[in-house]
Design a protein that fits this description.
The structure holds 2 protein chains of 2 kinds.
Chain A lengths: L2 H19 L7 H17 L5 E3 L10 E3 L2 H24 L8 H23 L3 H20 L3 H29 L4 H7 L4 H18 L8 H7 L2 H26 L6 H24 L3 H25 L4 H32 L10 H4 L1 H15 L5 H15 L3 H26 L12 H16 L4 H8 L18
Antiparallel strand pairs in A: 1-2
Helix pairs in contact in A: 1-2, 1-4, 2-3, 3-4, 3-10, 3-13, 3-18, 3-19, 4-5, 4-10, 5-6, 5-10, 6-8, 6-9, 7-10, 8-10, 9-10, 9-12, 10-13, 11-12, 11-17, 12-13, 12-16, 12-17, 13-15, 13-16, 13-18, 13-19, 15-17, 15-18, 16-17
Chain B lengths: L9 H19 L3 H22 L8 H35 L12
Classes of the chains: A mainly alpha, B mainly alpha.
Chain lengths: 485, 108
Protein backbone atom coordinates (compact mmCIF):
# COMPACT_ATOMS: atom_id res chain seq x y z
CA UNK A 1 0.00 0.00 0.00
CA UNK A 2 1.20 3.49 -0.71
CA UNK A 3 -0.31 6.85 0.21
CA UNK A 4 -0.82 7.48 -3.51
CA UNK A 5 -3.44 4.71 -3.69
CA UNK A 6 -4.95 5.47 -0.35
CA UNK A 7 -5.47 9.17 -1.07
CA UNK A 8 -7.86 8.12 -3.83
CA UNK A 9 -9.27 4.95 -2.32
CA UNK A 10 -9.97 6.24 1.20
CA UNK A 11 -12.39 9.06 0.21
CA UNK A 12 -14.24 6.67 -2.09
CA UNK A 13 -14.53 4.17 0.76
CA UNK A 14 -15.86 6.97 2.98
CA UNK A 15 -18.31 7.87 0.21
CA UNK A 16 -19.75 4.36 0.22
CA UNK A 17 -19.79 4.36 4.02
CA UNK A 18 -21.63 7.71 4.02
CA UNK A 19 -24.22 6.32 1.61
CA UNK A 20 -24.74 3.28 3.81
CA UNK A 21 -24.80 5.31 7.01
CA UNK A 22 -27.53 7.61 5.66
CA UNK A 23 -28.54 9.96 8.46
CA UNK A 24 -25.36 9.32 10.42
CA UNK A 25 -23.16 10.13 7.41
CA UNK A 26 -21.82 13.29 8.97
CA UNK A 27 -20.13 11.39 11.81
CA UNK A 28 -17.71 9.84 9.33
CA UNK A 29 -15.74 13.06 9.06
CA UNK A 30 -14.40 12.37 12.55
CA UNK A 31 -12.58 9.39 11.04
CA UNK A 32 -12.06 10.77 7.54
CA UNK A 33 -10.53 14.08 8.65
CA UNK A 34 -7.56 12.67 10.63
CA UNK A 35 -7.00 9.85 8.12
CA UNK A 36 -6.88 12.16 5.11
CA UNK A 37 -4.75 14.80 6.82
CA UNK A 38 -2.28 12.09 7.87
CA UNK A 39 -2.17 10.67 4.33
CA UNK A 40 -1.59 14.18 2.92
CA UNK A 41 1.25 14.76 5.37
CA UNK A 42 2.73 11.40 4.38
CA UNK A 43 2.55 12.43 0.72
CA UNK A 44 4.46 15.65 1.41
CA UNK A 45 7.36 13.87 3.11
CA UNK A 46 7.68 11.04 0.58
CA UNK A 47 11.11 10.89 -1.07
CA UNK A 48 11.15 12.69 -4.44
CA UNK A 49 10.36 10.64 -7.52
CA UNK A 50 7.94 8.27 -5.84
CA UNK A 51 5.50 6.84 -8.36
CA UNK A 52 3.06 4.00 -8.32
CA UNK A 53 1.51 1.97 -11.13
CA UNK A 54 -2.06 1.06 -10.26
CA UNK A 55 -2.52 -2.72 -10.29
CA UNK A 56 1.09 -3.12 -11.50
CA UNK A 57 0.06 -2.62 -15.12
CA UNK A 58 2.98 -1.13 -17.03
CA UNK A 59 2.73 2.00 -19.17
CA UNK A 60 1.35 2.69 -21.75
CA UNK A 61 -1.69 0.74 -20.56
CA UNK A 62 -1.34 1.24 -16.84
CA UNK A 63 -2.23 4.27 -14.81
CA UNK A 64 0.63 6.12 -13.17
CA UNK A 65 0.15 7.93 -9.87
CA UNK A 66 3.04 10.06 -8.71
CA UNK A 67 3.91 12.56 -6.03
CA UNK A 68 5.19 15.60 -7.91
CA UNK A 69 5.32 19.19 -6.70
CA UNK A 70 1.80 19.97 -7.91
CA UNK A 71 0.33 17.08 -5.92
CA UNK A 72 2.46 17.78 -2.84
CA UNK A 73 1.10 21.34 -2.65
CA UNK A 74 -2.50 20.85 -3.76
CA UNK A 75 -3.41 17.59 -2.02
CA UNK A 76 -2.74 18.89 1.53
CA UNK A 77 -4.46 22.20 0.76
CA UNK A 78 -7.47 20.35 -0.62
CA UNK A 79 -7.61 18.13 2.47
CA UNK A 80 -7.46 21.17 4.74
CA UNK A 81 -10.33 22.75 2.77
CA UNK A 82 -12.48 19.64 2.93
CA UNK A 83 -11.94 19.13 6.66
CA UNK A 84 -12.74 22.76 7.45
CA UNK A 85 -15.79 22.80 5.18
CA UNK A 86 -17.01 19.56 6.75
CA UNK A 87 -16.68 21.04 10.25
CA UNK A 88 -18.71 24.02 9.08
CA UNK A 89 -21.28 21.85 7.31
CA UNK A 90 -21.61 19.57 10.35
CA UNK A 91 -24.46 21.67 11.67
CA UNK A 92 -25.91 22.87 8.37
CA UNK A 93 -26.27 19.39 6.89
CA UNK A 94 -27.43 17.55 9.97
CA UNK A 95 -30.75 15.66 9.94
CA UNK A 96 -32.09 17.81 12.80
CA UNK A 97 -31.75 21.09 10.98
CA UNK A 98 -35.31 21.16 9.71
CA UNK A 99 -37.10 19.96 6.60
CA UNK A 100 -33.94 19.68 4.54
CA UNK A 101 -33.16 16.08 5.49
CA UNK A 102 -32.64 15.03 1.87
CA UNK A 103 -29.75 17.47 1.64
CA UNK A 104 -28.24 16.08 4.81
CA UNK A 105 -28.29 12.68 3.15
CA UNK A 106 -26.77 13.74 -0.15
CA UNK A 107 -24.21 16.32 0.90
CA UNK A 108 -21.82 13.94 2.65
CA UNK A 109 -21.39 11.27 -0.06
CA UNK A 110 -20.93 14.12 -2.58
CA UNK A 111 -18.23 15.65 -0.40
CA UNK A 112 -16.25 12.40 -0.38
CA UNK A 113 -16.78 11.82 -4.11
CA UNK A 114 -15.37 15.26 -4.84
CA UNK A 115 -12.48 14.63 -2.44
CA UNK A 116 -11.49 11.35 -4.07
CA UNK A 117 -11.91 12.75 -7.57
CA UNK A 118 -9.78 15.81 -6.98
CA UNK A 119 -7.03 13.80 -5.27
CA UNK A 120 -6.97 11.37 -8.21
CA UNK A 121 -6.79 14.35 -10.56
CA UNK A 122 -3.74 15.82 -8.82
CA UNK A 123 -1.89 12.50 -8.70
CA UNK A 124 -2.47 10.87 -12.07
CA UNK A 125 -0.71 11.51 -15.36
CA UNK A 126 -3.10 9.50 -17.52
CA UNK A 127 -5.18 11.90 -19.63
CA UNK A 128 -8.15 9.54 -19.91
CA UNK A 129 -8.10 8.89 -16.20
CA UNK A 130 -8.13 12.67 -15.78
CA UNK A 131 -11.32 12.76 -17.86
CA UNK A 132 -12.93 10.33 -15.43
CA UNK A 133 -11.76 12.41 -12.45
CA UNK A 134 -13.11 15.69 -13.84
CA UNK A 135 -16.45 13.98 -14.42
CA UNK A 136 -16.46 12.63 -10.86
CA UNK A 137 -15.76 16.09 -9.51
CA UNK A 138 -18.29 17.72 -11.87
CA UNK A 139 -20.98 15.27 -10.83
CA UNK A 140 -20.50 16.13 -7.18
CA UNK A 141 -20.14 19.84 -7.98
CA UNK A 142 -23.35 19.96 -10.01
CA UNK A 143 -25.29 18.19 -7.29
CA UNK A 144 -23.94 20.69 -4.72
CA UNK A 145 -24.68 23.70 -6.95
CA UNK A 146 -28.22 22.39 -7.49
CA UNK A 147 -28.81 22.51 -3.71
CA UNK A 148 -28.95 26.30 -4.02
CA UNK A 149 -30.56 26.91 -7.39
CA UNK A 150 -31.66 24.07 -9.63
CA UNK A 151 -31.68 26.32 -12.70
CA UNK A 152 -28.12 27.56 -12.11
CA UNK A 153 -27.02 23.99 -11.39
CA UNK A 154 -28.54 22.74 -14.62
CA UNK A 155 -26.87 25.47 -16.65
CA UNK A 156 -23.56 24.63 -15.00
CA UNK A 157 -24.14 20.93 -15.67
CA UNK A 158 -24.76 21.34 -19.42
CA UNK A 159 -21.82 23.66 -19.93
CA UNK A 160 -19.50 21.45 -17.89
CA UNK A 161 -20.68 18.44 -19.89
CA UNK A 162 -19.79 20.05 -23.22
CA UNK A 163 -16.44 21.14 -21.77
CA UNK A 164 -15.54 17.64 -20.69
CA UNK A 165 -16.69 16.15 -24.00
CA UNK A 166 -14.40 18.55 -25.85
CA UNK A 167 -11.61 17.31 -23.61
CA UNK A 168 -12.61 13.70 -24.31
CA UNK A 169 -12.51 14.36 -28.07
CA UNK A 170 -8.90 15.48 -27.68
CA UNK A 171 -8.09 12.38 -25.65
CA UNK A 172 -9.66 10.22 -28.38
CA UNK A 173 -7.49 11.85 -31.05
CA UNK A 174 -4.35 11.38 -28.95
CA UNK A 175 -5.20 7.78 -28.08
CA UNK A 176 -5.54 6.77 -31.71
CA UNK A 177 -2.53 8.83 -32.83
CA UNK A 178 0.02 7.83 -30.20
CA UNK A 179 -1.48 4.66 -28.69
CA UNK A 180 -1.06 6.14 -25.24
CA UNK A 181 -2.63 8.92 -23.24
CA UNK A 182 -0.04 9.10 -20.49
CA UNK A 183 1.38 12.61 -20.13
CA UNK A 184 4.90 11.40 -19.34
CA UNK A 185 5.02 9.22 -22.49
CA UNK A 186 3.41 11.91 -24.66
CA UNK A 187 6.15 14.30 -23.57
CA UNK A 188 8.61 12.02 -25.38
CA UNK A 189 6.47 10.98 -28.35
CA UNK A 190 4.54 14.13 -29.24
CA UNK A 191 5.10 15.64 -32.69
CA UNK A 192 3.79 19.02 -33.86
CA UNK A 193 1.41 17.62 -36.50
CA UNK A 194 -2.22 18.43 -37.28
CA UNK A 195 -3.99 15.77 -35.12
CA UNK A 196 -1.87 16.71 -32.10
CA UNK A 197 -2.53 20.43 -32.50
CA UNK A 198 -6.25 19.77 -32.97
CA UNK A 199 -6.26 17.62 -29.86
CA UNK A 200 -4.47 20.28 -27.78
CA UNK A 201 -6.89 22.95 -29.03
CA UNK A 202 -10.12 21.12 -28.21
CA UNK A 203 -8.78 19.86 -24.87
CA UNK A 204 -7.66 23.34 -23.85
CA UNK A 205 -10.98 24.88 -24.92
CA UNK A 206 -12.94 22.29 -22.95
CA UNK A 207 -10.82 22.76 -19.84
CA UNK A 208 -11.00 26.56 -20.05
CA UNK A 209 -14.80 26.28 -20.01
CA UNK A 210 -14.61 24.13 -16.88
CA UNK A 211 -12.07 26.44 -15.26
CA UNK A 212 -14.25 29.46 -16.16
CA UNK A 213 -11.49 31.61 -17.63
CA UNK A 214 -12.82 34.90 -19.05
CA UNK A 215 -14.71 35.02 -21.49
CA UNK A 216 -15.97 31.49 -20.70
CA UNK A 217 -16.87 32.35 -17.09
CA UNK A 218 -20.60 33.07 -17.56
CA UNK A 219 -21.86 30.04 -15.66
CA UNK A 220 -19.67 30.56 -12.58
CA UNK A 221 -21.11 33.53 -10.64
CA UNK A 222 -24.77 32.36 -10.57
CA UNK A 223 -23.84 28.75 -9.71
CA UNK A 224 -21.29 29.64 -7.03
CA UNK A 225 -23.32 32.43 -5.47
CA UNK A 226 -26.60 30.49 -5.21
CA UNK A 227 -25.22 27.33 -3.58
CA UNK A 228 -25.23 26.89 0.23
CA UNK A 229 -22.05 28.30 1.83
CA UNK A 230 -20.12 25.02 2.27
CA UNK A 231 -20.92 24.02 -1.32
CA UNK A 232 -19.88 27.46 -2.64
CA UNK A 233 -16.62 27.14 -0.76
CA UNK A 234 -15.84 23.77 -2.35
CA UNK A 235 -16.94 24.89 -5.83
CA UNK A 236 -14.81 28.01 -5.82
CA UNK A 237 -11.82 26.59 -3.97
CA UNK A 238 -11.42 23.04 -5.23
CA UNK A 239 -13.50 22.25 -8.32
CA UNK A 240 -12.13 24.84 -10.72
CA UNK A 241 -8.53 24.04 -9.71
CA UNK A 242 -8.74 20.60 -11.26
CA UNK A 243 -9.18 21.91 -14.81
CA UNK A 244 -6.26 24.24 -14.19
CA UNK A 245 -4.02 21.39 -12.99
CA UNK A 246 -4.83 19.36 -16.12
CA UNK A 247 -3.94 22.39 -18.25
CA UNK A 248 -0.59 22.62 -16.43
CA UNK A 249 0.01 18.93 -17.22
CA UNK A 250 -0.83 19.47 -20.89
CA UNK A 251 0.98 22.73 -21.52
CA UNK A 252 4.12 22.29 -19.47
CA UNK A 253 4.59 18.54 -19.44
CA UNK A 254 2.97 16.54 -22.26
CA UNK A 255 3.25 19.18 -25.00
CA UNK A 256 5.85 21.57 -23.62
CA UNK A 257 7.98 21.15 -26.76
CA UNK A 258 5.13 21.75 -29.18
CA UNK A 259 3.22 24.73 -27.87
CA UNK A 260 4.17 27.99 -29.51
CA UNK A 261 4.84 31.24 -27.59
CA UNK A 262 1.88 32.91 -29.34
CA UNK A 263 -0.50 30.38 -27.75
CA UNK A 264 1.05 31.05 -24.34
CA UNK A 265 0.56 34.79 -24.89
CA UNK A 266 -3.07 34.23 -25.89
CA UNK A 267 -3.76 32.36 -22.66
CA UNK A 268 -1.87 35.01 -20.68
CA UNK A 269 -3.92 37.74 -22.35
CA UNK A 270 -7.18 35.99 -21.46
CA UNK A 271 -5.88 35.77 -17.89
CA UNK A 272 -5.12 39.50 -17.83
CA UNK A 273 -8.62 40.32 -19.13
CA UNK A 274 -10.12 37.97 -16.55
CA UNK A 275 -8.33 39.85 -13.74
CA UNK A 276 -9.58 43.25 -14.94
CA UNK A 277 -13.12 42.15 -15.86
CA UNK A 278 -13.66 40.02 -12.76
CA UNK A 279 -12.39 42.77 -10.46
CA UNK A 280 -14.55 45.47 -12.06
CA UNK A 281 -17.62 43.21 -11.89
CA UNK A 282 -16.84 42.39 -8.25
CA UNK A 283 -16.70 46.11 -7.45
CA UNK A 284 -20.15 46.58 -9.01
CA UNK A 285 -21.93 43.79 -7.11
CA UNK A 286 -24.48 44.59 -4.43
CA UNK A 287 -24.75 41.02 -3.11
CA UNK A 288 -21.92 39.65 -1.01
CA UNK A 289 -21.76 36.13 -2.45
CA UNK A 290 -21.78 37.42 -6.03
CA UNK A 291 -18.87 39.71 -5.10
CA UNK A 292 -16.93 36.72 -3.79
CA UNK A 293 -17.84 34.69 -6.90
CA UNK A 294 -16.63 37.43 -9.28
CA UNK A 295 -13.48 37.64 -7.20
CA UNK A 296 -12.93 33.97 -8.15
CA UNK A 297 -13.20 34.94 -11.84
CA UNK A 298 -10.54 37.59 -11.25
CA UNK A 299 -8.22 35.40 -9.18
CA UNK A 300 -8.32 32.64 -11.80
CA UNK A 301 -6.87 35.17 -14.21
CA UNK A 302 -3.59 35.23 -12.25
CA UNK A 303 -3.18 31.49 -12.77
CA UNK A 304 -3.25 31.97 -16.54
CA UNK A 305 -1.41 35.29 -16.63
CA UNK A 306 1.52 33.23 -15.36
CA UNK A 307 1.61 30.87 -18.36
CA UNK A 308 3.71 33.07 -20.68
CA UNK A 309 5.81 34.19 -17.71
CA UNK A 310 6.73 30.55 -16.98
CA UNK A 311 7.39 29.76 -20.64
CA UNK A 312 9.72 32.70 -21.20
CA UNK A 313 11.50 32.80 -17.86
CA UNK A 314 15.24 32.38 -17.44
CA UNK A 315 14.51 30.42 -14.30
CA UNK A 316 11.03 28.97 -14.83
CA UNK A 317 11.06 27.34 -11.39
CA UNK A 318 10.21 30.72 -9.84
CA UNK A 319 6.98 31.62 -11.71
CA UNK A 320 6.06 27.90 -11.62
CA UNK A 321 6.26 28.03 -7.83
CA UNK A 322 4.33 31.31 -7.89
CA UNK A 323 1.42 29.87 -9.82
CA UNK A 324 1.16 26.85 -7.52
CA UNK A 325 1.40 28.98 -4.38
CA UNK A 326 -1.32 31.19 -5.83
CA UNK A 327 -3.53 28.16 -6.47
CA UNK A 328 -3.03 26.94 -2.91
CA UNK A 329 -3.52 30.28 -1.20
CA UNK A 330 -6.57 31.09 -3.32
CA UNK A 331 -7.99 27.70 -2.39
CA UNK A 332 -7.61 28.34 1.35
CA UNK A 333 -8.58 32.01 1.31
CA UNK A 334 -11.58 31.62 -0.98
CA UNK A 335 -13.00 28.71 1.01
CA UNK A 336 -12.53 30.78 4.20
CA UNK A 337 -14.20 33.79 2.60
CA UNK A 338 -17.27 31.87 1.40
CA UNK A 339 -17.67 30.23 4.82
CA UNK A 340 -17.30 33.54 6.65
CA UNK A 341 -19.73 35.18 4.22
CA UNK A 342 -22.16 32.33 4.81
CA UNK A 343 -22.02 32.86 8.58
CA UNK A 344 -22.51 36.61 8.30
CA UNK A 345 -25.37 36.43 5.79
CA UNK A 346 -27.17 33.76 7.77
CA UNK A 347 -26.92 35.90 10.91
CA UNK A 348 -28.39 39.01 9.30
CA UNK A 349 -30.85 37.02 7.11
CA UNK A 350 -30.01 39.03 4.01
CA UNK A 351 -27.68 38.75 1.06
CA UNK A 352 -26.71 42.35 0.36
CA UNK A 353 -23.47 44.01 1.37
CA UNK A 354 -25.47 46.82 2.99
CA UNK A 355 -27.05 44.27 5.35
CA UNK A 356 -23.67 43.79 7.03
CA UNK A 357 -23.69 47.22 8.70
CA UNK A 358 -22.19 47.13 12.18
CA UNK A 359 -21.58 43.41 12.06
CA UNK A 360 -17.94 43.73 13.18
CA UNK A 361 -19.22 44.35 16.71
CA UNK A 362 -21.72 41.51 16.75
CA UNK A 363 -19.62 38.86 14.98
CA UNK A 364 -15.97 39.83 15.49
CA UNK A 365 -14.56 36.38 14.68
CA UNK A 366 -16.41 35.94 11.39
CA UNK A 367 -15.45 39.42 10.24
CA UNK A 368 -11.84 38.70 11.25
CA UNK A 369 -11.84 35.51 9.16
CA UNK A 370 -13.25 37.45 6.22
CA UNK A 371 -10.61 40.15 6.64
CA UNK A 372 -7.72 37.67 6.87
CA UNK A 373 -8.94 35.92 3.71
CA UNK A 374 -9.24 39.33 2.02
CA UNK A 375 -5.61 40.14 2.91
CA UNK A 376 -4.41 37.02 1.10
CA UNK A 377 -6.74 37.48 -1.87
CA UNK A 378 -5.75 41.11 -2.37
CA UNK A 379 -2.09 40.10 -2.17
CA UNK A 380 -1.12 42.16 0.87
CA UNK A 381 1.89 40.98 2.88
CA UNK A 382 2.34 38.71 4.73
CA UNK A 383 0.25 36.07 3.01
CA UNK A 384 0.40 33.29 0.45
CA UNK A 385 -1.29 35.58 -2.05
CA UNK A 386 1.44 38.18 -1.58
CA UNK A 387 4.24 35.63 -2.07
CA UNK A 388 2.65 34.40 -5.31
CA UNK A 389 1.97 37.85 -6.74
CA UNK A 390 5.41 39.10 -5.73
CA UNK A 391 7.12 36.20 -7.52
CA UNK A 392 4.96 36.77 -10.62
CA UNK A 393 5.70 40.50 -10.61
CA UNK A 394 9.40 39.75 -10.20
CA UNK A 395 9.30 37.40 -13.21
CA UNK A 396 7.38 39.94 -15.32
CA UNK A 397 9.84 42.74 -14.54
CA UNK A 398 12.84 40.47 -15.10
CA UNK A 399 11.52 39.65 -18.58
CA UNK A 400 10.76 43.30 -19.31
CA UNK A 401 7.07 42.57 -19.83
CA UNK A 402 5.23 45.76 -19.03
CA UNK A 403 1.64 44.62 -19.60
CA UNK A 404 1.59 41.66 -17.20
CA UNK A 405 3.41 43.74 -14.59
CA UNK A 406 0.86 46.55 -14.94
CA UNK A 407 -2.05 44.10 -14.77
CA UNK A 408 -0.59 42.57 -11.61
CA UNK A 409 -0.36 45.96 -9.93
CA UNK A 410 -3.78 47.20 -11.11
CA UNK A 411 -5.39 43.86 -10.25
CA UNK A 412 -4.00 44.12 -6.72
CA UNK A 413 -5.44 47.63 -6.34
CA UNK A 414 -8.84 46.63 -7.70
CA UNK A 415 -8.81 43.58 -5.43
CA UNK A 416 -8.21 45.81 -2.42
CA UNK A 417 -11.12 48.03 -3.54
CA UNK A 418 -13.73 45.28 -3.85
CA UNK A 419 -12.62 43.41 -0.74
CA UNK A 420 -12.44 46.56 1.38
CA UNK A 421 -16.06 47.52 0.66
CA UNK A 422 -17.84 44.74 2.62
CA UNK A 423 -15.34 45.20 5.46
CA UNK A 424 -15.89 48.94 5.66
CA UNK A 425 -19.66 48.35 5.80
CA UNK A 426 -19.18 45.77 8.56
CA UNK A 427 -17.12 48.23 10.61
CA UNK A 428 -19.50 51.14 10.03
CA UNK A 429 -22.57 52.02 12.06
CA UNK A 430 -22.75 52.76 15.75
CA UNK A 431 -25.22 50.11 16.89
CA UNK A 432 -24.42 46.42 16.65
CA UNK A 433 -27.31 44.49 15.08
CA UNK A 434 -28.93 41.91 17.32
CA UNK A 435 -27.75 38.54 16.00
CA UNK A 436 -27.27 35.18 17.59
CA UNK A 437 -23.87 34.53 19.13
CA UNK A 438 -21.29 32.86 16.90
CA UNK A 439 -21.01 29.11 17.33
CA UNK A 440 -17.31 28.52 18.10
CA UNK A 441 -16.99 25.35 16.01
CA UNK A 442 -18.41 26.97 12.90
CA UNK A 443 -16.30 30.12 13.14
CA UNK A 444 -13.21 27.99 13.71
CA UNK A 445 -13.41 26.60 10.15
CA UNK A 446 -13.07 29.89 8.21
CA UNK A 447 -10.64 31.28 10.80
CA UNK A 448 -8.35 28.26 10.49
CA UNK A 449 -8.39 28.35 6.68
CA UNK A 450 -7.76 32.09 6.52
CA UNK A 451 -4.93 31.80 9.05
CA UNK A 452 -3.37 29.04 6.95
CA UNK A 453 -3.52 31.31 3.88
CA UNK A 454 -1.72 34.01 5.89
CA UNK A 455 0.78 31.50 7.30
CA UNK A 456 1.77 30.47 3.77
CA UNK A 457 3.35 33.91 3.51
CA UNK A 458 5.97 32.83 6.07
CA UNK A 459 6.76 29.53 4.36
CA UNK A 460 7.85 30.89 0.97
CA UNK A 461 11.11 28.95 0.63
CA UNK A 462 9.56 25.63 1.71
CA UNK A 463 6.76 26.06 -0.82
CA UNK A 464 9.18 26.86 -3.64
CA UNK A 465 11.22 23.76 -2.84
CA UNK A 466 8.09 21.59 -2.67
CA UNK A 467 6.81 22.91 -5.99
CA UNK A 468 10.02 21.89 -7.77
CA UNK A 469 9.83 18.24 -6.69
CA UNK A 470 9.75 16.07 -9.83
CA UNK A 471 8.85 19.15 -11.89
CA UNK A 472 8.63 18.57 -15.66
CA UNK A 473 11.83 19.53 -17.55
CA UNK A 474 10.17 22.58 -19.09
CA UNK A 475 9.85 24.26 -15.72
CA UNK A 476 12.84 22.89 -13.84
CA UNK A 477 15.05 25.90 -13.29
CA UNK A 478 18.82 25.88 -13.74
CA UNK A 479 19.11 26.78 -10.06
CA UNK A 480 16.62 25.03 -7.81
CA UNK A 481 16.73 27.55 -5.00
CA UNK A 482 18.81 30.69 -4.73
CA UNK A 483 20.55 30.65 -1.36
CA UNK A 484 20.76 34.45 -1.16
CA UNK A 485 17.00 35.02 -0.98
CA UNK B 1 -14.41 -8.60 -40.29
CA UNK B 2 -12.68 -6.89 -43.19
CA UNK B 3 -13.85 -3.64 -44.66
CA UNK B 4 -12.60 -2.17 -47.97
CA UNK B 5 -9.82 0.36 -47.48
CA UNK B 6 -11.97 3.12 -48.97
CA UNK B 7 -14.33 2.79 -46.04
CA UNK B 8 -11.45 2.94 -43.51
CA UNK B 9 -12.34 6.42 -42.44
CA UNK B 10 -16.07 5.97 -42.57
CA UNK B 11 -16.54 5.60 -38.80
CA UNK B 12 -14.36 8.55 -37.72
CA UNK B 13 -15.90 10.80 -40.38
CA UNK B 14 -19.43 9.84 -39.32
CA UNK B 15 -18.36 10.53 -35.77
CA UNK B 16 -17.10 13.98 -36.76
CA UNK B 17 -20.44 14.74 -38.44
CA UNK B 18 -22.27 13.67 -35.28
CA UNK B 19 -20.07 15.91 -33.12
CA UNK B 20 -20.82 18.84 -35.42
CA UNK B 21 -24.56 18.15 -35.43
CA UNK B 22 -24.65 17.79 -31.66
CA UNK B 23 -22.71 21.01 -31.09
CA UNK B 24 -25.02 22.83 -33.49
CA UNK B 25 -28.02 21.49 -31.61
CA UNK B 26 -26.55 22.43 -28.23
CA UNK B 27 -26.06 26.02 -29.34
CA UNK B 28 -29.37 26.55 -31.16
CA UNK B 29 -31.81 24.63 -28.92
CA UNK B 30 -33.12 26.26 -25.75
CA UNK B 31 -34.94 23.49 -23.91
CA UNK B 32 -32.56 21.79 -21.45
CA UNK B 33 -33.80 18.31 -22.38
CA UNK B 34 -33.01 18.93 -26.04
CA UNK B 35 -29.63 20.34 -25.07
CA UNK B 36 -28.94 17.21 -23.04
CA UNK B 37 -29.85 15.03 -26.03
CA UNK B 38 -27.59 17.16 -28.24
CA UNK B 39 -24.76 16.55 -25.77
CA UNK B 40 -25.45 12.83 -26.05
CA UNK B 41 -25.15 13.08 -29.84
CA UNK B 42 -21.74 14.73 -29.37
CA UNK B 43 -20.76 11.91 -27.03
CA UNK B 44 -21.87 9.26 -29.52
CA UNK B 45 -19.78 10.96 -32.20
CA UNK B 46 -16.70 10.99 -29.99
CA UNK B 47 -17.09 7.32 -29.13
CA UNK B 48 -17.43 6.51 -32.84
CA UNK B 49 -14.24 8.44 -33.60
CA UNK B 50 -12.39 6.73 -30.78
CA UNK B 51 -13.59 3.24 -31.69
CA UNK B 52 -13.27 3.77 -35.44
CA UNK B 53 -9.69 5.01 -35.35
CA UNK B 54 -8.66 1.97 -33.32
CA UNK B 55 -9.87 -0.44 -36.01
CA UNK B 56 -6.89 -1.99 -37.79
CA UNK B 57 -6.33 -4.40 -40.68
CA UNK B 58 -8.40 -7.41 -39.70
CA UNK B 59 -7.46 -7.02 -36.06
CA UNK B 60 -9.03 -4.59 -33.63
CA UNK B 61 -7.07 -2.66 -31.02
CA UNK B 62 -8.71 -3.34 -27.64
CA UNK B 63 -7.28 -0.20 -26.02
CA UNK B 64 -9.67 2.38 -27.58
CA UNK B 65 -12.54 -0.02 -26.94
CA UNK B 66 -11.76 -0.10 -23.24
CA UNK B 67 -11.74 3.70 -23.24
CA UNK B 68 -15.07 3.82 -25.11
CA UNK B 69 -16.71 1.48 -22.60
CA UNK B 70 -15.54 3.61 -19.68
CA UNK B 71 -16.69 6.72 -21.51
CA UNK B 72 -20.15 5.25 -22.10
CA UNK B 73 -20.51 4.42 -18.40
CA UNK B 74 -19.62 7.99 -17.44
CA UNK B 75 -21.98 9.37 -20.08
CA UNK B 76 -24.91 7.22 -18.91
CA UNK B 77 -24.40 8.30 -15.30
CA UNK B 78 -24.28 11.97 -16.23
CA UNK B 79 -27.30 11.73 -18.52
CA UNK B 80 -29.27 10.16 -15.69
CA UNK B 81 -28.28 13.01 -13.36
CA UNK B 82 -29.18 15.57 -16.03
CA UNK B 83 -32.62 14.13 -16.75
CA UNK B 84 -33.33 13.88 -13.02
CA UNK B 85 -32.46 17.56 -12.59
CA UNK B 86 -34.57 18.59 -15.59
CA UNK B 87 -37.54 16.57 -14.30
CA UNK B 88 -37.21 18.11 -10.83
CA UNK B 89 -36.95 21.62 -12.25
CA UNK B 90 -40.06 21.09 -14.34
CA UNK B 91 -41.97 19.71 -11.31
CA UNK B 92 -40.90 22.69 -9.24
CA UNK B 93 -42.05 25.13 -11.89
CA UNK B 94 -45.35 23.36 -12.34
CA UNK B 95 -45.87 23.36 -8.57
CA UNK B 96 -45.15 27.07 -8.52
CA UNK B 97 -47.88 27.43 -11.17
CA UNK B 98 -45.88 29.70 -13.42
CA UNK B 99 -47.51 28.74 -16.72
CA UNK B 100 -45.33 26.85 -19.22
CA UNK B 101 -42.64 24.93 -17.39
CA UNK B 102 -39.82 25.80 -19.76
CA UNK B 103 -38.86 28.59 -22.11
CA UNK B 104 -40.38 28.11 -25.55
CA UNK B 105 -38.56 26.12 -28.18
CA UNK B 106 -37.68 27.58 -31.49
CA UNK B 107 -39.26 24.85 -33.59
CA UNK B 108 -42.97 25.00 -34.26
Amino acid sequence: MSPLDLLVAAPLAFMVAALVAGQGGRWLILAAGPVMLALSAWLVVLPPGVAHLVGDWDLPLGILLRADGVARLLVPATSACFVAVALYAWHEFSPKAGAETARAHTFWPMLYLMWGGSNAGYLTTDLFNLYVTIEMVSLAAVAMAAMGSLAAGLQYFLIALVGSLAYLLGVALLASHYDTVDATLLAVRARPDLPTLMAITVMTAGLLVKTALFPLHGWLPPAHAAAPAPASALLSAVVIKLGFVILLRLWFEAFAEIIRPAAMDLLGGMGALAILYGSVQAIRQERLKLLVAYSTVAQLGYLFLAFPLIANAQNPAEPWAAVLVHAVSHMLAKAAMFLAAGLMLKAVAGDRISDLAGLARAMPLSVTAFALAAISLAGLPPSGGFTAKFLLLHAAIEQGRVVPAAVLVIGGLLGAVYLFRPLSVAFSGSAAPAVRAEAPLRVAAPLALASLAIALGFAGMTLIELSSVAAPPAVAGPVQAEPGR
Amino acid sequence: MTVPAVLGHLFPLTGAVLVGLGLCGFITLRHPLRQLLAVNVIGAGIFLILGGLGRGEGVTDPYPQALVITGIVVSVALTALGTAMIARLSEDRRAAGSGPDQPKDQDP
